[in-house]
Design brief:
alpha/beta; Aminopeptidase; Alpha-Beta Plaits; 2 domains; six-stranded mixed sheet; four-stranded antiparallel sheet; 17 strands; binds N-formylmethionine; binds zinc ion
Length: about 400
């Protein structure tokens, strides 16, 4: 990390915020083996530079979350949380125009890297907004917690899911947390007040084995096919429901058959076969009803057909954060002042917010990225330097409004 001061000068003749953002992008926190240690090291130095106390919270021996604190003058008030995940999804390097971990800046200011949108900018924007406010002599009334999480991209089990169970989390007394959203290709910011629950469904069918030249009755494949067909019919009906009613993706159940398993040889009817599905269930759909349907389809298929959900996915209470009250109204005021349209909806994918909401903490997902294509998990992910800096200003205003002046 090149030397700099609290006023934000950078030897590279580049705003310090952008330099730190690019440095963070170069740390390979990429699955399946994210370099969390490298990220923690970077964040320790960063916190030191901006003079914020830091806590490193081990979630597993190799995975630690990072919490920075900007102390408010009235710690008794519920605090503002600003969270971002440190991990990023894998890349197909051959598809990238530039090294995805070089954080190359193109002549037009586009910064190309894995994590350029999802979601390394936010972590740096939070800290840079604090740097600017500190430099301007502003200090908050509420505590502001900047949270860096692990494993969001693979379900948050060794991350936010465990963190919300800790004493530290309770002590933080969070009144509201801001998390990631999705870039808007047009003007304005998308904002998410809820999210669909991921259900990673595994259907297993078993049946008699034998030579594949015969009509072996009730084979695993025949039974599995019944369930697959029913699920895919349901998929079609949900897609139709979305299109005819002009609903958002966050309002219907999406379903994709993503993994097929089983079988050993062409001419051997296997004893068991599996099919795995990525299903996303909106908070507005009844979990019992959907589980009931799946149960019925498995039963109809015959004996020896079962289903289960992978890991911590599957039916769960899935809260919505109310678009009312002081936190939400504060966000709206900031957007209005900045002339920024807000587009609220339900997050179609899953993120850390669901664990916050089910712990009773309202959470809003908003990535301050407008007029930029959504390249989450895609190749050539990028963010323009100017858009990144606009995001720093957004959080300056957000903190002023939500954390209150002392
Ligand atoms: C099982 S939770 C998976 C979380 C992941 N989050 C971002 O992409 C997602 O697929 O939505
Ligand atoms: Zn993300
Ligand atoms: Zn992601």
């Amino acid at each position: 990390m090149p030397s700099s001061d609290l006023n934000g000068t950078s030897p590279a003749a580049e705003p310090i915020a952008v330099t730190r953002y690019r440095e963070y992008l170069r740390i390979k926190t990429v699955h399946p083996e994210p370099d969390y240690e490298g990220a923690v090291q970077f964040l320790r130095k960063y916190a030191d530079e901006v003079q914020l106390p830091i806590d490193v919270i081990p979630i597993t021996p190799k995975k630690s979350m990072v919490i920075m604190k900007w102390e408010g003058s009235d710690s008794s008030k519920p605090a503002l949380g600003l969270t971002s995940h440190m991990d990023v999804v894998p890349v197909f390097p051959a598809l990238w125009s530039h090294d995805p971990f070089a954080a190359t800046k193109l002549p037009n200011g586009d910064i190309v890297a894995r994590g350029a949108q999802d979601m390394k900018p936010l972590g740096v924007q939070y800290v840079e907004a604090i740097r600017r406010l500190k430099t301007a002599g502003w200090s908050p009334k509420r505590n502001v917690w900047v949270i860096f999480t692990t494993d969001e991209e693979i379900g948050s089990l060794d991350g936010m899911a465990k963190f919300v169970q800790t004493e530290k989390f309770r002590e933080m007394n969070l009144g509201c947390v801001l998390d990631e959203g999705i870039p808007n290709p047009n003007e304005g910011y998308n904002v998410y007040y809820g999210e669909r629950a991921p259900w990673w469904l595994i259907v297993t069918a078993t049946g008699p084995v034998g030579h594949a030249s015969q009509f072996i009755p009730d084979s695993a494949g025949v039974k599995l096919n019944h369930v697959i067909s029913k699920l895919l019919e349901f998929r079609k009906s949900e897609e139709k429901r979305m299109k005819t009613n002009k609903l958002g993706l966050g309002e219907v159940v999406s379903l994709n058959w993503t993994i097929a398993g089983g079988g050993v040889q062409f001419n051997v009817v296997p004893a068991s076969m599996t099919a795995k599905f990525d299903i996303r269930v909106p908070p507005t759909v009844s979990n019992e009803e959907l589980v009931g349907r799946i149960r019925t389809w498995c039963k109809e298929a015959g004996d020896g057909v079962s289903f289960a959900f992978d890991g911590i996915t599957g039916p769960r209470e899935n809260g919505l954060s109310k678009m009312e009250g002081e936190w939400w109204e504060g966000i709206e005021r900031v957007a209005k002042r900045r002339n920024m349209p807000l587009y609220p909806s339900i997050f179609p994918a899953a993120t850390d917010s669901r664990f916050l909401r089910s712990s009773g903490v309202p959470s809003f997902g908003l990535s301050p990225i407008q007029k930029t294509p959504n390249l989450l998990h895609d190749h050539n992910e990028y963010l323009n330097e100017a858009t990144f800096l606009e995001g720093v200003e957004w959080y300056v205003d957000v903190m002023k409004e939500l954390a209150g002046s002392s």
